[in-house]
């Protein structure tokens, strides 16, 4: 494999893991979002060689066999997708969002609201943290509902 191959192309073309989508190929839409070392990244911008040896989780890796992850199940339950193209990236990003909240990581909204030491999971906070993922169909309200539903089952 060429050392200039993006992680997205390596996943899709060399490993046959086609869940992550190529949207803009410029890191602007989030359709290619995957987790590297538990952190969300735009896989179209990351060279595959730079992630060598790191744990990489794609949408395919979030489920356990036929059992969907809580976020995958919530997206289905809350009808948080329409065409589905952005859904894998949205779900990976939302999964990381909750991990970030649990770890107490602040966002711009956290600073604006004065809650940077203990961010609260408000709709505004969810929207800010998901802002790197575009849904051209406009399923945003249902995406926020899905994230909220999963968060209720966690101790944040």
UniProtKB/TrEMBL annotation:
Q: Which CDD domains match?
A: fer2 (cd00207)
Q: Any keyword Iron? A: yes
> A GO molecular-function term, please?
metal ion binding
- In this protein, which residues make up the domain named 2Fe-2S ferredoxin-type? 1-62
Q: Report the InterPro entries cross-referenced here.
A: 2Fe-2S-bd (IPR002888), 2Fe-2S-bd_dom_sf (IPR036884), 2Fe-2S_ferredoxin-like_sf (IPR036010), 2Fe-2S_ferredoxin-type (IPR001041), 2Fe2S_fd_BS (IPR006058), Aldehyde_Oxdr_Iron-Sulfur (IPR052914), Beta-grasp_dom_sf (IPR012675)
Task: Report the superkingdom from the record.
Answer: Bacteria
Keyword annotations:
2Fe-2S, Iron, Iron-sulfur, Metal-binding, Oxidoreductase
Q: Does the keyword Transmembrane apply?
A: no
Put simply, this protein is called Aerobic-type carbon monoxide dehydrogenase, small subunit CoxS/CutS-like protein
Q: Which organism is it from?
A: Terriglobus roseus (strain DSM 18391 / NRRL B-41598 / KBS 63)
């Amino acid at each position: 494999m060429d050392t200039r191959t993006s992680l997205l192309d390596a996943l899709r073309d060399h490993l046959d893991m086609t869940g992550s989508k190529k949207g803009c190929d410029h890191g602007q839409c989030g359709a290619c979002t995957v987790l590297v070392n538990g952190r969300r990244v735009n896989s179209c911008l990351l060279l595959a060689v730079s992630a060598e040896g790191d744990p990489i989780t794609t949408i395919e890796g979030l489920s356990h066999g036929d059992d969907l992850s809580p976020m995958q199940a919530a997206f289905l339950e809350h009808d948080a997708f329409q065409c589905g193209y952005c859904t894998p990236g949205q779900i990976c990003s939302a999964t990381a969002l909750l991990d970030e909240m649990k770890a107490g990581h602040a966002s711009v909204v956290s600073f604006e609201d004065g809650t940077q030491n203990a961010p609260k999971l408000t709709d505004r906070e969810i929207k800010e943290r998901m802002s790197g993922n575009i849904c051209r169909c406009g399923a945003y309200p249902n995406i926020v509902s899905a994230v909220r539903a999963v968060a209720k089952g966690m101790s944040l």
